[in-house]
Amino acid sequence: xxxxxxxxxxxxxxxxxxxxxxxxxxxxxxxxxxxxxxxxxxxxxxxxxxxxxxxxxxxxxxxxxxxxxxxxxxxxxxxxxxxxxxxxxxxxxxxxxxxxxxxxxxxxxxxxxxxxxxxxxxxxxxxxxxxxxxxxxxxxxxxxxxxxxxxxxxxxxxxxxxxxxxxxxxxxxxxxxxxxxxxxxxxxxxxxxxxxxxxxxxxxxxxxxxxxxxxxxx
Length: 218
Ligand code: G3P
Hints:
By secondary structure, the chain is of the alpha/beta class. The chain contains eleven helices and eight strands. The chain has a single domain (2-189), classed as Alpha-Beta Barrel (TIM Barrel). An eight-stranded parallel β-barrel has the order 1-2-3-4-5-6-7-8, surrounded by seven helices. α4 links the parallel β3 (56-59) and β4 (82-87). The longest helix has 17 residues, at 198-214. SN-glycerol-3-phosphate binds next to α7.
């Protein structure tokens, strides 16, 4: 499963990219709003694209077709890594179809049902983003949605990639891998948690203590 970092925080992105841990970035208007500070969103997106050799999702904020097309084309023109993110609405799917005809990659976001995901695939989406954690928040099983989408895409041979989003903890990441998501996007905190295991730390401490006690050198 490809690992995307769900953030616009350029420090975190630099750290994860230089460690070779990530395959791409997803942003949304909320994440970009917290990262821009006194810079323009264009500047931030360009820095991200230069840091990461992979897809960088950037979302439109218009909700009508013409507005989405204008913003999406502007975003796509910024850098080859940009994937235009559109919401799963009727106009979002119209925009998706148009972008795909123009050779622009599209991430259809805010997906909360498998039939929505089927429509996005029919519109030619490059990625579909089911929001796992937000479904869990309202008492549903978010991962069940990812599994249903996987099954439908396999039955009908859709090549849209399943991008499990709103992953909140390492168990979500593991489950997304087990149900066959193509990609998972996670916040920096969850990426750090994936690396950690208390027995790794404990084992390393014991190895180092034994070595020190022996007085040996490498
Ligand atoms: O990729 C979508 C993601 O940003 C939503 O995550 O945790 O805000 O539901 P969350």
